[in-house]
Write a structure and sequence with these properties.
The protein is an alpha/beta fold and 307 residues long. Helices cover 45% and strands 24% of the residues. Strands 3, 4, 5, 6, 7, 10, 11, 12 and 13 form a nine-stranded mixed sheet that branches. Helix 1 packs across helix 2.
Length: 307
């Protein structure tokens, strides 16, 4: 069994087609088929099955796919470490933040990493949580702070902070005020919300549904900037974390009110690959991130320690 065979098998499973995988790998389809057959002979079980909808892993193939991804990731990490030790490539550290966290932490994080890790090339990626999680699993990122990290053998995840969701409205609206509001009290408000499938929208919808309420979604928007613009124009309210609107609140452009009965929370996870132990640079970065998150919790009461 060779790493090339593992990579080929993974691609076939991801594309659901031997012909598409062969095209992507720039090899003949029969040659790719020979690689797959060799794996099946080596392990003594069928790994793939052809159906009218494409080529899919068998139950044994699903188990093999998970192990193959782990093995390929370990090999890639080993190659990178060897090249760094040999001085063939610069040492790097790639970190991912969500857009809301980037505005709060990016500058301080890069400044402290730069001071603590001389000679290490620092890379910062700003993406939504699901994209960051995928980048950690694939090896593009060494560390990420993301929400709703799933259980996975590819990922080591640790809950760090809970972040409250709040009602966001514009000054002078009927929901303008300083005290908390209940979920039932804002059930009739027209809302600008992220598109279906977004974590915040799922949390709001599930909480309302559990209480016999239906969210009044007037605008479904992919862009956070567009959501905030709808609220600033007085066209709707929003339910968002404070981190997403901190600058607007400070500038007086928006009003924030805590939600109670029930409080709505999302959990922030620190994520790294599970297949390798942190090297010295990553371990130092973990300590710096922990210190920053502790500072953030003290600065913003909407963040609390995750249990």
């Amino acid at each position: 069994m060779r790493s090339r065979q593992l990579e080929s098998f993974i691609l076939v499973c991801e594309l659901g087609s031997i012909s598409k995988a062969a095209l992507a790998l720039n090899i003949a389809q029969p040659a790719l088929g020979v690689q797959i057959k060799a794996l099946e002979r080596e392990f003594g079980v069928p790994l793939l099955v052809r159906t009218v909808t494409g080529t899919h892993p068998t139950p044994a193939g699903l188990l093999f796919l998970e192990e193959a991804r782990l093995m390929v990731r370990r090999l890639e990490d080993l190659k990178r470490s060897l090249r760094e030790v040999a001085g063939q490539v610069p040492r790097t550290l790639a970190v991912g933040l969500t857009p809301s966290l980037s505005g709060l932490l990016a500058g301080r994080l890069m400044e402290r990493l730069h001071g603590a890790l001389p000679g290490v090339e620092l890379k910062l990626f700003e993406e939504l949580s699901h994209a960051l999680i995928g980048h950690v699993a694939s090896g593009k990122l060494d560390l990420a702070l993301a929400y709703t990290a799933p259980h996975s053998r590819m990922l080591h995840r640790e809950a760090r902070l809970n972040e409250a969701l709040c009602l966001i409205t514009h000054p002078g609206s009927r929901f303008d005020g300083t005290g908390p509001v209940t979920l039932a009290g804002i059930a009739g408000a027209e809302l600008a919300m992220p598109n279906e499938g977004d974590l915040v929208r799922r949390l709001v919808t599930d909480a309302m549904t559990a209480r016999g309420l239906v969210p009044n979604v007037a605008f479904s928007l992919e862009s956070m900037q567009a959501i905030k613009d709808m609220v600033r124009r007085g066209l709707a309210c929003a339910i968002l974390p404070h981190s997403a609107v901190a600058e607007d609140i400070q500038a007086g452009a928006l009003v924030i009110r805590p939600i109670v009965e029930p409080p709505l929370m999302r959990t922030l996870f620190l994520i790294r690959p599970a297949v390798t132990e942190p090297n010295a640079a990553t371990a130092q970065a973990l300590r710096i991130i922990d210190d920053l998150l502790d500072e953030l919790r003290r600065e913003d009461r909407n963040f609390t320690v995750a249990s």
